[in-house]
């Protein structure tokens, strides 16, 4: 009886082909990526600060830096390299700096609104100035005037100016 042919035949290997090489991993890749992210974050913070200094609102500057970093992350790719490239990591750092600026703006707005509400609650009903007690009449006004005059005299610095030789001071008798 003839032997049945096996359907799972292996192709013969060629000996003249070089073995596939594996890409060596860079042991310093995490450090490099961290430095790229730090560089992008510092750059994004500096750009955001300069925009605010030029008169752009902090919210607009934060959104602009975040969008610029995000677009940079999406467009700065290298098809020959798998994973994120250095410029992509730097762009991610820039986007993170913009997002951080937006978070700071949000926190500052919340604190401002809270403080304004506290002041409004504190000053509620205190909008009218109290009038002095005029029922006491003239003696009250005279007393306030005299106390102010005494305080002004006590606080005043007296000096005698040098009038020179041409001026004669005459005292009335």
Task: Characterise the protein shown here.
This protein has 173 residues and is mainly α. The protein has a domain at 32-119. The protein contains four helices and no strands. It has helices spanning 29-53, 58-75, 86-122, 138-155. The mean pLDDT is 78.
Tags for this model:
4 helices, mainly alpha, 173 residues
Structural class: mainly alpha
Distance between the termini: 161 Å
How large is the radius of gyration? 41 Å
Largest sheet: none
Element order, helices and strands? Answer: HHHH
- Number of β-strand runs: 0
Query: Low-confidence spans: pLDDT under 50, at least 5 residues?
Result: none
**Strand share of the residues?**
under 5%
Mean pLDDT: 78
Q: Percent range for helical residues?
A: 55-70%
Number of DSSP helices? 4
Shape: elongated
Secondary structure elements and their pairing?
Elements: H1 29-53, H2 58-75, H3 86-122, H4 138-155
């Amino acid at each position: 009886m003839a032997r049945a042919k096996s359907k799972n035949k292996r192709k013969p290997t060629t000996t003249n082909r070089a073995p596939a090489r594996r890409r060596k991993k860079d042991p310093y890749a995490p450090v490099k990526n961290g430095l790229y992210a730090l560089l992008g974050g510092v750059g994004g913070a500096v750009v955001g600060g300069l925009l605010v200094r030029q008169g752009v609102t902090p919210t607009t500057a934060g959104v602009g830096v975040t969008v610029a970093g995000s677009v940079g992350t999406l467009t700065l790719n290298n098809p020959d390299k798998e994973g994120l490239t250095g410029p992509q990591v730097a762009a991610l750092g820039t986007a993170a700096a913009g997002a951080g600026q937006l978070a700071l703006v949000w926190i500052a707005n919340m604190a401002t609104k809270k403080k304004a509400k506290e002041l409004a609650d504190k000053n509620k009903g205190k909008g009218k100035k109290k009038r002095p007690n005029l029922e006491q009449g003239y003696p009250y006004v005279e007393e306030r005037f005299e106390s102010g005059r005494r305080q002004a005299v006590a606080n005043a610095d007296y000096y005698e100016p040098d009038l020179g030789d041409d001026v004669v001071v005459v005292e009335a008798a």
